């Protein structure tokens, strides 16, 4: 399979994208990595002896910046690395694309260049978030759409369930609806309208889920609108960062606390790794008629490597076709 990586996207540019591509190429020789971007800026990060046989460069002269207006940039910057990646998927020259660039522009690329799956009203950004047992949960939508309808949430639930089944091998994913209480009548107009639709959907719906229970593994798929979902994501990221910063301060306060830190270090390191988004690699844009994955802007080489792993599994499992079939079945039914 061929995986196109937007080599110019993200906070670190080609340095991390190329390093991640090289790690992935070494790990999986059945994956052909196409680095899309300015060849003059990509080449210095390749090995002195040249790139492996399953890594090539596809030159793209332009870049979409983080502060560019998404739709305008995608329409005007036709040779931007992100847009070229999308075009490679549309033309069948790539089976998946990965980018750590402008999230809005990536959504626009998915919609305008790659295209939606028939019947999907709004694609959703669906990252994996951590749980205490390490299994994690898929959350969608976490920022692609600030306003959603109950029918959007229904489609998110179906797509998320298919993703966890195909990519993570969960036979009957538990789907929860983010809400302010677990009772069926709780919530705003959106969640109240969505609840009966999810009850009737071809999924394993476990009802409303409160944010405080998510880290304890209350569901495998969490459904919400992008506004609430993005607040949830940022709150979790901020809390994790604050906790680890506070621990570091306390463990360096005195000689005794430094000794305690040395003893606890293996356990704390394992816990931090469990909470690390880079272990999950990337968030898929579900509902796009092709595999489009979004890495965090500050992703390191390990995150890009894991994004390639996700793309391989999603491709070999027929994820896009499965989502198309399931949503089509739901429409016909």
From TrEMBL:
<dbReference type="Pfam" id="PF02504">
    <property type="entry name" value="FA_synthesis"/>
</dbReference>
<keyword id="KW-0963">Cytoplasm</keyword>
<dbReference type="GO" id="GO:0005737">
    <property type="term" value="C:cytoplasm"/>
</dbReference>
<comment type="subunit">
    <text>Homodimer. Probably interacts with PlsY.</text>
</comment>
<keyword id="KW-0444">Lipid biosynthesis</keyword>
<comment type="similarity">
    <text>Belongs to the PlsX family.</text>
</comment>
<comment type="pathway">
    <text>Lipid metabolism; phospholipid metabolism.</text>
</comment>
<dbReference type="GO" id="GO:0043811">
    <property type="term" value="F:phosphate:acyl-[acyl carrier protein] acyltransferase activity"/>
</dbReference>
<keyword id="KW-0808">Transferase</keyword>
<keyword id="KW-1208">Phospholipid metabolism</keyword>
<comment type="function">
    <text>Catalyzes the reversible formation of acyl-phosphate (acyl-PO(4)) from acyl-[acyl-carrier-protein] (acyl-ACP). This enzyme utilizes acyl-ACP as fatty acyl donor, but not acyl-CoA.</text>
</comment>
<dbReference type="InterPro" id="IPR003664">
    <property type="entry name" value="FA_synthesis"/>
</dbReference>
<keyword id="KW-0443">Lipid metabolism</keyword>
<dbReference type="GO" id="GO:0008654">
    <property type="term" value="P:phospholipid biosynthetic process"/>
</dbReference>
<protein>
    <recommendedName>
        <fullName>Phosphate acyltransferase</fullName>
        <ecNumber>2.3.1.274</ecNumber>
    </recommendedName>
</protein>
<dbReference type="GO" id="GO:0006633">
    <property type="term" value="P:fatty acid biosynthetic process"/>
</dbReference>
<keyword id="KW-0012">Acyltransferase</keyword>
<dbReference type="InterPro" id="IPR012281">
    <property type="entry name" value="Phospholipid_synth_PlsX-like"/>
</dbReference>
<keyword id="KW-0594">Phospholipid biosynthesis</keyword>
């Amino acid at each position: 399979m061929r995986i196109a990586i937007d080599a110019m996207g993200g906070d670190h540019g080609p340095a991390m994208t190329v390093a991640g591509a090289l790690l992935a190429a070494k790990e999986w020789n059945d994956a052909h990595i196409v680095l899309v971007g300015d060849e003059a800026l990509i080449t210095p990060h390749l090995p002195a002896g040249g790139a492996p046989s399953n890594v090539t460069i596809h030159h793209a002269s332009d870049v979409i910046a983080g502060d560019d207006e998404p739709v305008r940039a995608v329409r005007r910057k036709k040779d931007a690395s992100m847009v070229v990646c999308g075009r490679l998927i549309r033309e069948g020259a790539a089976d998946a694309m990965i980018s750590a660039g402008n999230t809005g522009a990536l959504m626009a690329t998915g919609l305008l260049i790659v295209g939606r799956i028939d019947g999907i009203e709004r694609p959703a950004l669906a990252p994996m978030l951590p749980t205490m047992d390490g299994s994690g949960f898929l959350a969608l939508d976490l920022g692609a759409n600030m306003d959603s309808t109950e029918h959007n949430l229904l489609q998110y639930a179906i797509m998320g369930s298919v993703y966890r089944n195909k990519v993570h091998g969960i036979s009957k994913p538990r789907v929860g609806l983010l809400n302010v209480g677990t009772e069926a009548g709780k919530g705003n107009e959106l969640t109240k309208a969505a609840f009966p639709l999810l009850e009737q959907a071809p999924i394993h719906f476990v009802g409303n889920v409160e944010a405080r229970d998510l880290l304890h593994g209350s569901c495998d798929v969490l459904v919400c609108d992008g506004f609430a979902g993005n607040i949830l994501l940022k709150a979790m990221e901020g809390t994790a960062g604050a906790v680890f910063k506070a621990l570091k301060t306390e463990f360096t306060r005195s000689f005794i606390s430094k000794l305690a830190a040395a003893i606890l270090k293996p356990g704390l390191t394992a816990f931090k790794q469990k909470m690390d988004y880079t272990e999950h690699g990337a968030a898929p844009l579900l509902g796009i008629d092709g595999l489009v994955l979004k890495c965090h802007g500050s992703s390191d080489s390990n995150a890009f490597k894991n994004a390639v792993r996700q793309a391989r599994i999603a491709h070999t499992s027929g994820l896009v076709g499965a989502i198309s079939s399931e949503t089509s079945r739901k429409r016909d039914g």
